[in-house]
UniProtKB/TrEMBL annotation:
Name the record gives this protein: palmitoyl-CoA hydrolase
Organismal lineage: Eukaryota, Metazoa, Chordata, Craniata, Vertebrata
Lipid metabolism keyword on record: yes
Highest taxon above the source species: Eukaryota
GO MF terms, alphabetically ordered: carboxylic ester hydrolase activity; long-chain fatty acyl-CoA hydrolase activity
Amino acid sequence: IMRPDDANIAGNVHGGTVLKMIEEAGAIISTRHCNSQAGEPCVAALARVERTDFLSPMCIGEVANVSAEITYTSKHSVEVQVNVLSENILTGAKKVTNKATLWYVPLSLKNVNKVVEVPPIQYARKEQEDEGKKRYEEQKLDRLETKQRNGDVIFPVINPEPHTVGYSQSSLIHLVGPSDCTLLGFVHGGVTMKLMDEVAGIVAARHCKTNIVTASVDAINFHEKIKKGSVITISGRMTFTSNKSMEIEVFVDADPFVDEPQERYRAVSAFFTYVSLSKEGKPLPVPQLV
């Protein structure tokens, strides 16, 4: 059930809260499947989230129903489709709020750098396997291209003008603790996405000075694992505005903090789209980026 601390001031559940629930469902079904046959014990780690649209808002007091299904497996990865429905328990009304596709890789409990083999699934039709393989190759290529262009850094701007990139850009620093992590001692993908959505929301709100909501998330790529004890910096900046929406780039940099010689590295990157709403929940024009 969605509570006040899950929502914004307008009563709509934060996009990051929904993304965290989606990731938890995906992690459960992937880990369960990867341990369904005799072999090395493992935990599924999130590698990528495909574009996710927020089809309808979820409100305080509604019940979230999250369902997950494995739709494709390769030798070392699992594709999971997740659907989110909200239910008004007073009226019984239900609506689909989100549909998402996630990719996981199983990591050995004995050696976190070892990716174990995934048990294959049975397909109802040969076409389903062929279509899944095509999606797998496409996301693999896109992840590689994204990683190669991932060198940008956000620098503070002194006395920025309103509606400029520097005016709304924001950062959040977070120390990774045990409650953020999996059994392997690395950050849950859902925790990272929730923090990213929070920063993107601050950027959007600073730009518009209105209530804002997450409209969609382009592919989120998890390039490197983030270890417990690391300090992560989540940075966001406005990259595009139309009359009705804002595109915000968000990336996560990790600093291994305790007994680690490794330098800061780019761990995650994504683009979020937000819309501006009135107090009545009606779409408002977005100020153009200068």
